[in-house]
Specification:
The structure holds 2 protein chains of 2 kinds. Chain A is mainly α. Helices cover 63% and strands 2% of the residues of chain A. Chain A has helices at residues 21-36, 41-58, 63-66, 68-89, 123-149, 152-157, 164-193, 200-228, 239-264, 274-293, 307-324, 328-331, 343-351, 355-358, and strands spanning 99-101, 105-106, 117-118, 121-122. Chain A has a two-stranded antiparallel ribbon. Chain A is globular, with a radius of gyration of 28 Å. The chains are: A mainly alpha, B alpha/beta. Chains A and B meet through α7 and α8 of A and α4, α5, α12 and α13 of B.
């Protein structure tokens, strides 16, 4: 007897995984470039909204992911400071301005002529401060989004092999900070057991000495542990090969310095600028590649660029490029009329919301 | 597998040698247990195997060390990583990455193994050490025993021939310690790995050990455990019992000792039960709650301690012992509940820190946090001033607790036991009614623990109420009047030490396991025999 059944329809579930941190950074920088190319409040608000949407739907539960709201607060502070600044130093009205609140101007001595203190509050001043502040806030929030979405340790781990040692040092430094905070808390608590008031210079010293001793001891333990596990093993490169690599890197550095100087200083001979700069970059690249080759390390489950990564990065680039084609009148609206909204600008920003739905969910690490 | 030939080691500029003329051979697939008093050179000896000594510590090493037939002298630890796996004392301090899986892979990345090999070995190691469910966990959130197993796993993935463990169970509760040691024993059995373990609480490791290495003032004796233990300066209770009874060969496990007791009857009269403390109640805690966010650390705990009583808090790592001690001292967080100290019933959290420490003096887990001055004499003077005590009080207390500490020594240079004595003296200078100690036995060897229990008994007799938390069952058997066992922040059992310890399979001391619940320590047997 033959029994044939059809397998039940299965919904293909995307496996939860973290996106390559580089993809999130390209996406966020693209969005930041979009924001910096406009002062249109509608577009900027949309940028902030899209950023929040993506962060909320695709961030993990790591400490850096939870820090996103600080960037939002920081953005709000920027807007408020910008507007206040305009009111305090940019007050006063000319004919044709809409005066919102009439205020007297505080007369200042002639020495500081050119600075005005207070004066009539006009809609132009308020709007200029608002638009400007919103733009800066949007850029800051975009960077915050990249920080929240991309695991900084994974980002450092994907640096080229030649920079591996520097990358590891940075990763270790980052993990020291939470430990330091913990240590401060513990010592501060212990201080009270000796019946001491926790204030004054003396108390600072009593706090700092044990905390630093603690940190030093821990870093020695960590260094010993890393050494015992093979960190910093010498590669197989011969002394000569290393010398050649070093030579390339030095030549590259020299070329970059001289070339940049000549490029900026118009009186320097022209043959020193472009050719030397290009030669320096070439040498540096060769040196880097050679230095990377002799490194014997491998990566465990490296982050790879797959479909969702490419799509995410592309969204950011598309938005940044699309914004360049927006009519300047719509990108930088006049302060006296309602801002116009261009469909192209809205579309460019909305494209960047796609990763909120089209990328896999982040892995949940139990903390 | 390991040959140490005439090795001597001295730090640069030090007047004495840490190791002198050490000869030692450890066979392949054996488990060697390294014991000795604190500061005898155990850790130095372990460091010699993988080059941490002298590459990391400085100093001069003479002689030769061979592993698997080749001399490793002069090679730095990183070049030996694939030969010798070294697990440091505090695993958390040695972790480089964030999650279990990355930590297991870290060493292999350094060796430059291919990704497919790494993937396979990580999976094998996760299974071997029972860590598969924890693979994505952040390392900081693991329990002590789990962290220790991850630390062992992180060197095992490099497939070393030798595994060196520096006090792997010193911070663990009895159950977690058993777990880690069972894992190590399995590695020896299944993988034929050569394992070298240094351990203070040797009673749990001795049954697994093929060879015992006794380090004494820089010299080393090694041989079968039963022979060496006859006159070793440190010995577990079961060996002390065997020495007392004149058993030969000495029993090394509870099972062997029980067999002896059955075959050659061991006539004993039941010891006097420890007198129940009858002093006035010094500390009353009612309904103590402590929570950190969604985590409940202490849940409605009631506690009473009398004058002259030594009360011990026991329980797993993270069961709320420290939180409870800190909450009662008044410095730590307390969400609900009351504490009343002394006849006035003052709550330490209602008074300033300076007064609270006269009610409850707390010695924290990392006792060194209380020390910040350059020498012992300055610390003592500062303690007198802070407590408003006549000058010299602290020094006098210190001399009683640990005589002969030079006043010009730096507190960080003191041994574990001496530092604890100094902190204890500083805390006692304020004449607290209740003395609380959080895990005071960590890093203390058997003689130092015996000394601590004498000191605590004296303090209790002087009219202090003493409250302490520890994992060390044998120490509890020596020192405690009453025991309170916590689990998940709740009191699960409380009462006289004999009732609580003998009832629990995890907490029963070795002597009780052999002779029966009436006997807790070898000292009691001695007393009843004569």
């Amino acid at each position: 007897m033959v029994v044939a059944t059809t397998s039940p329809p299965q919904r293909r579930q995307r496996r939860a995984r973290d996106l390559h941190p580089g993809a999130w950074w390209i996406w966020a920088l693209g969005l930041a470039a979009t924001a910096s190319a406009t002062t249109n409040p509608v577009v900027l608000s949309l940028v902030i909204a899209v950023t929040c949407l993506v962060v909320v739907s695709r961030r993990g539960d790591a400490p850096w992911a939870r820090a996103f709201r600080f960037y939002l607060w920081f953005g709000a502070v920027i807007v408020a400071v910008r507007v206040l600044y305009r009111l305090v130093f940019g007050g006063g009205s000319v004919i044709g301005d809409t005066v919102l609140i009439p205020l007297p101007e505080i007369p200042l001595p002639d020495v500081v002529s050119g600075i005005r203190l207070l004066g009539d509050v006009t809609s132009t001043a308020v709007l200029a401060g608002l638009y400007d502040g919103l733009r800066l806030a949007a850029v800051v929030i975009c960077v915050g989004a990249a920080n929240a979405l991309a695991n900084p340790k994974r980002l450092l781990a994907s640096v080229p092999p030649a920079l591996y040692e520097v990358g590891t040092a940075l990763v270790v430094t980052m993990s020291v900070f939470p430990q330091l905070a913990e240590s401060v808390q513990r010592v501060h608590r212990a201080r009270r057991l000796r019946g001491e008031p926790g204030t004054g210079i003396g108390a600072m010293r009593r706090l700092v000495v044990p905390v630093l001793e603690d940190a030093l001891e821990r870093s020695m333990t960590l260094a010993a542990g890393m050494d015992a596990r093979g960190y910093g093993r010498a590669g197989t490169a011969s002394v000569r090969a290393r010398a050649v690599t070093g030579g390339f890197l030095l030549a590259g550095l020299f070329g970059l310095c001289v070339g940049t100087y000549a490029f900026l200083d118009q009186t320097a001979p022209r043959w020193l600028s472009w050719p030397v700069l290009a030669g320096g970059i070439g040498c540096a690249v060769i040196g880097f590649l050679r230095a990377g080759e002799r490194v014997q390390r491998t990566r465990y489950r490296p982050d790879r660029w797959r479909g969702p990564e490419l799509m995410t990065a592309a969204c950011g680039i598309v938005a940044a490029v699309g914004m360049r084609f927006v009519d300047p009148a719509a990108a930088f609206p006049s302060l006296t009329r309602m801002p116009e909204v261009s469909i192209l600008a809205l579309a460019a920003v909305l494209v960047t919301a796609v990763p909120a739905f089209a990328t896999p969910e982040p892995r949940r690490v139990i903390r | 597998m390991i040959e140490v030939i005439d090795v001597s080691f001295a730090y640069d500029g030090a007047p004495f040698r840490v190791l002198t003329g050490v000869d030692l051979t450890i066979g392949e697939g054996e488990l060697a247990l390294v014991v000795g008093r604190t500061g005898s050179g155990k850790s130095t000896l372990l460091g010699v195997f993988n080059g941490l000594v002298p590459h990391f510590t400085g100093g001069t090493l003479r002689g030769d060390v061979r592993i698997d037939g080749t001399s490793v002298l002069g090679r730095p630890p990183r070049e030996l990583a694939d030969l010798v796996g070294y697990v440091p004392q505090d695993p958390l301090d040695g972790f480089v990455t964030d999650t279990v899986e990355e930590e297991l892979a870290y060493g292999m990345e350094q060796l430059g193994l291919s990704p497919s090999t790494m993937r396979r070995r990580v999976e094998e190691t996760l299974d071997l050490l029972g860590l598969a469910d924890l693979r994505d966990r952040a390392l900081r959130t693991l329990s002590g025993g789990q962290q220790q197993r991850v630390a062992i796993g992180s060197v095992l993935t490099m497939h070393p021939r030798v595994l060196v463990l520096d006090e792997p169970t010193s911070a663990l509760d009895p159950t977690a310690a058993e777990d880690v040691l069972a894992t190590v024993a399995r590695l020896v059995d299944d993988l034929a790995l050569t394992v070298v373990v240094a351990e203070h609480r040797m009673e749990r490791v001795i049954p697994f050990a093929d060879q015992l290495v006794v380090v004494e003032d820089g010299t080393v004796r090694s041989g079968p455990p039963a022979e060496l233990l006859r006159d070793s300066p440190v010995a577990p209770p079961i060996v002390d019992l065997g020495r007392l009874a004149g058993w030969d060969p000495l029993p090394l496990s509870v099972r062997e000792a029980r067999k002896r007791v059955r075959t050659e009857p061991f006539v004993l009269t039941e010891p006097e039960p420890r007198p129940v403390p009858r002093g006035p109640v010094e500390l009353i805690a009612r309904g103590i709650d402590v929570g950190y966010g969604p985590v409940v650390a202490v849940d409605a705990v009631d506690l009473e301690v009398r004058t002259g009583e030594i009360c011990v808090l026991m329980g797993r790592n993270g069961s709320g012992k420290s939180s409870l001690l800190w909450a009662m001292q008044g410095t730590g967080r307390r969400d609900a509940g009351t504490v009343a100290i002394g006849p006035d019933g003052t709550d330490p959290s209602d008074v300033p820190a300076g007064e609270a420490r006269m009610l409850v003096g707390l010695v924290p887990q990392t006792a060194g946090d209380l020390l910040y001055l350059e020498d012992v004499a300055e610390e003592c003077a500062a303690a007198d001033e802070q407590a408003g005590a006549p000058s010299g009080t602290c020094r006098e207390l210190l001399d009683r607790l640990a005589p002969g500490i030079d006043g010009i020594r730096h507190p960080r240079d003191l041994s574990e036991g001496q530092r604890l004595a100094l902190v204890l003296a500083i805390v006692l200078t304020a004449r607290p009614r209740v003395l609380a100690l959080d895990e005071p036995t960590r890093g203390l060897d058997y003689p130092a623990k015996a000394e601590l229990s004498r000191v605590l008994r004296e303090l209790a007799e002087d009219g202090h109420a003493v409250l302490l938390s520890t994992h060390d069952v044998e120490f509890v058997a020596q020192v405690a009047d009453t025991v309170v066992v916590l689990a998940d922040g709740e009191v699960v059992s409380a009462g006289a030490v004999r009732d609580v310890l003998a009832e629990s399979p995890a907490f029963a001391p070795q002597v009780a396991k052999v002779l029966g619940p009436q006997w807790l320590t070898v000292a009691q047997v001695e007393r009843t025999r004569w």
